[in-house]
Batch of 2 targets.
Target 1
Amino acid sequence: MKLNINGRDHEVTGLDEATPLLWVLRDALGLKGTKYGCGIAQCGACTVHLNGAPVRSCSLPLTAARGQRITTIEGLAAGDELHPLQEAWIEQDVPQCGYCQAGQLMSAAALLRRTPKPTDAEIDQAMAGNLCRCGTYLRIRAAIHAAAARTQTKADASA
Amino acid sequence: MSVVDSGYLDVDALLRLAEAQHAFVSRRSFLQLLTVAGGGLVLALHSSESRAVADTTAAPAGFAPNAFVRIAPDGTVVVYAKIPEVGQGVKTSLPMIVAEELDVDWSQVRIEQAAINPTVYGRQTAGGTRSTPTNWMPLRQAGATARLMLVNAAAKRWNVAGAELKTERGEVLHPSSGRRLRYGELTTLAASLPLPDPSRVKLKERSQFKLLGRRIGGVDNRAIVTGQPLFGIDMELPGLLFATYTKCPAVGGTVVKVNAAEIKRLPGVRDVFVLEGNGKPAEVMPGVAIVATSTWAAMAAQRKLTIEWDETSASKDSWNAAVAQARELAKVSGADTLRSSGNVTSAFDGAQHRVDAFYSYPFIAHAPLEPQNCTAHFKNGSIELWAPTQSPDRALPTLAALLGIPESKVTIHQQRGGGGFGRRLINDVMCEAALIAQRVKGPVKLQWTREDDMEHDFYRVGGFHAFKGGVDEQGKLVAWADHFVTFTADGNTPTSGGDMPAEEFPALLVLNVQLTQTKLPLKIPTGPWRAPRSNSIAFAVQSFLHELSTAAGKDHLEFLLQLMGEPRWLPPQTEFALNTGRAANVIKLAAEKSGWGSPLPQGRGRGLAFHFSHAGHFAEVADVSVDANRKLTVHRVTVAGDIGPIINRSGAENQCEGSVIDGFSAMLGQEIAIENGRIEPSNFDRYPLLRINHAPPVDVHFIESDNPPTGAGEPALPPVAPAICNAIFAACGHRVRSLPLTREGFNV
């Protein structure tokens, strides 16, 4: 079966079609950035993009990913150039343990693509599916605003 | 001939030993400065030229004057992080201490997680908020010693007195001649010089700090945000197999029958076997291991297990039964007397206001976001493990004993932990992985599911307090009694996290005190949960204190300040004890920064609470609204803390913000149900952790007193619950005496 991950095609063989995409990414393809937290789509640590939309890969069977465009945290940066969210996350020193942050970033990236300048309420709604056990929510919110502003500034500068 | 004499390695004896073994030991060899557990200094000889050396540490390239620093000829500075990193920030903050005294720019520093070697590094446990206070001076000494050796090398090179030299950003300078040398250019010379006398090593003054106190980003941040494999669960090895381990839902049950043949036929399954375990929940309990070719194959197979358990010796614990018992016991004094001072009976009789109250809090889970896991490879009588543990040093002897091998044959690689909160202080998953690895050819990763993690936790124990308090006409607290109903596993001592010290606040500040205790039997394992004891006792004690100030008609700020009295150290009167002056200062600061006393609209109120734990003085004010349907809105939590000088300001603030959110999360909706020894719930659909939409704004203020620095991981948590409950009372007049809030009808 062919999977398209971060712009590249991967051939996966010998896997049950019901295997959650999460475990295909982690074990079959060695992409460890997407995390396992609960397995029932409650924590968001497994968030990836399916054709640009955020999905919980722990609950997405392999068959549903076939022929779709999958983006993982490893594909968020453009080569060496970090996504504005990744830069903001570093600038704001968001992570504590860091385990939830890949999922947080994927949900946030999908939000900013839909809503380039989200309000606090829009952030809350988009990010409510991503748990942070360490409680970095305040910094997550600040980093999303910072990334939005940075993108705005860049857009204004190149306009 | 002993080369070790009362903790000091006899260097001459070691040289004679090495020579006797025909090992060439150069007199120009550099010495390694080692720190042993307890903080003493040991010198061990190492030579890069000898063929056989008496000590076991390997010689890395460059100048490595001690186990914490290595400087390469190209100037790269590697600082080794000795304590496990589980999100508390020590992988960044502790190396900052070394870098400060070494006098290098943070951009010149690369951090590496240290090897697990307690002989060299001392205690390597991340717990008790001990890392900062115990490592502060040894790390300063390590950095400053390395700096002095580089200065001495430059002095020798330039033939000047060391006193004429300065250091700055990884260079030694001779101001009068303008000469300068980078540390990298001095490594070979420095390595050949003798170790300086420790008493000659000068540490910086606080005013000279360039790095400490600044906001420094976590050293792994870039790797985290780009999805690099850092955590235990991310471990990958050639030929790695994957395992699950399934235990009886009621702790202590043994395996009677399992459908092993059926499971073995499932896709990817390589083996199924039963482990008897050793009866210790902290090590290995009986269960069924499945070994498979992928995590999913193992987990999918686990779901198809049918196991018959013998529950004769298994837990029959029931939380509801405990609640009923505690309520009965609350009517009388406890079986054990923890403290009896003054005369509470007559003090209560003479009190102007007297309040009786029964408080309770449930068992809760740790639920770190990365479920427990451990990768292990057993080969030729040795074992290698990779684990996101909080106590790798303690795992060494445990695993050695479990496997019947010497400690020297146990190697542990510290992985980053996706949250700890005290759960990862217990190494049961490492023990399970070790026994499974013995039955597997090649490496195997044991991965718990979320359900395993929640059903086999070492829970924060629940408890009950039957309080009596008396206040005099001036509103002063004159009598305090608490019958504390807790649990015991061994029948003698309270279960882990369920003990109340005789000095528990406010016992040392009140003349007439009676603390008694009754212990109910419990088989369910309990363990340290962030700020053990304090995380639950503070809710009860600091809320009940507010009940007393309310009864006395006294402003709670004034009540607390009066309770603290004159600024002084309380017993045991060490630098890490409660100081009433420091307490009063944080209480006043929290009040000031929160606008305490200024009017609020109907339905809105402020609550103030203080608690001292883990050598940290913290006071917090919550500002909340409660509507007619008991919908709770936390507008803001103001935190004031005194943990001495701040090392990494961003990390410390992050810990305090996180503690508030953690504390609010726990009190709001978390509870573990226990019935017939079984735990519920086992996943986040019915165990609600706080989400971003309910995270309140948090303001953090530090008083950076001149006391020695202590840690930020735990002490900001205990005041959260009572601050919010006191605020709820101020807002709507309802007194919360039992958690979680959702059980009291509150919602968010």
Target 2
Amino acid sequence: MDVNELKSSGLLELYVLGQTSQEETALVESMLDQHPELRQEIVEISFALEAYASTVAETPSPSTKEKLMEEVRKNPSPFVPGNTSNNIKGGNNYGWLAAMLGLATLGLAWFYFSKIQDYQALQSDYQDYVLACDSIQRVDSTIIAKYEEIEDPNNQIIPINATEKYPESNLYFHYNPVSGRNFIQIKNLPPIAANQSYQLWSLKGDQAIPLDVFQGDGDNIFEVLFEENSDAYAITIEPRGGQDTPTLDNLIGVIPVS
Amino acid sequence: MEKIQQIELLQIISLIKSRDEKGLSLLYDNYAGSILGLINNIVRDKEVAEEILQQTMLKVWNSVHQYDHNRSTFFTWMASIARNAAIDKARLKGFQHNKKTETLDPIVHNKEVSHISTSGIDAKTLIGKLDKKYKDVLDCLYLHGYTQKEASEELNVPLGTIKTRLRTAINILREELKNEKKTFIGFWLVIILLLFLSWM
């Protein structure tokens, strides 16, 4: 999944709400580590929710704050920086010895810490290489897993039936009713504007159930939702972010699966 | 309470990390209202909500070193502590009010609050921008603490729709906050220009 697909998947919003599964959380956090620009999305989503929360703000009773502050004072933290004080009184006859020992200690400490710094620099480089290797390995594993899935014998490869409006549309729908997984393989889709998205639908009888929303600018093979007992799947062009009901005028094509 | 600036929030967090009570007091003054509102929309019992508010603030005070600014904003972190405590309380056997069999009570939005959150945007404006179908999903997931599945059952819409509507609702709020910021900046630019012209 690339950055744009993650943004349009709705996972970031669910992550901020704390409603992602363990796997989804790991995915989001991995993407956040790899793409720091996603943090701005997290911040903006959080600000929007904070603004919404303020519309239901209530005034607590004064006693609540009093009880809280009292509780904090009764159980102060064991570590309070700057609380300790050392009083060193008087002098002694061994001051020169203490000074020499102090200098020697400083010298040894300087030597030790300079070696520590070299070691830490090497270790940091090593960690960077490990992270880079892990990242490449993760990407490779993901790609391998994807191709293993679509090569599964139960996987059906169904070309889209393009509509007259978009006759050049070319897409393979990888449908596996046994594993319950679908993949889309884009060959050619009609171009969309910046304020539009492609949207996948499950067709059951006369019902159209909204599924994935995507921009089509990421991987050309990617997983989409599987809906049990679908008669067919369809792809339309919708306003960016998708909507609840399909715009039939913008129907790109249908993929029959029943 | 006007929105505190990010730099003031950083100072508050720094005070709390230094175990300075003033930090906790300022945090409470700025955020207790919103946090209490979130809690009370889940537990629907003001007295219990205030207890949970106190526990939340105490937990923030004691666990501030666990806050990771790379993962969330400070408010989101606090709100998740509060909402989790409220959801746990609401699901306790002895506390259940059969919420799932009740229809959603209309959420009382504080329309009299003129200064809100991120940019001084008016509450009425913010809520007014949301269609009911988006507001219902946001209220279910954020204010009532429902899971996506519970929200899907409560609102009788497919799971995929819940996700789509949540995203749309939050995008609308984000756009509205950006527009308000632009209006605010534009207003001050005009004032400065007029002052400059009058000086000339």
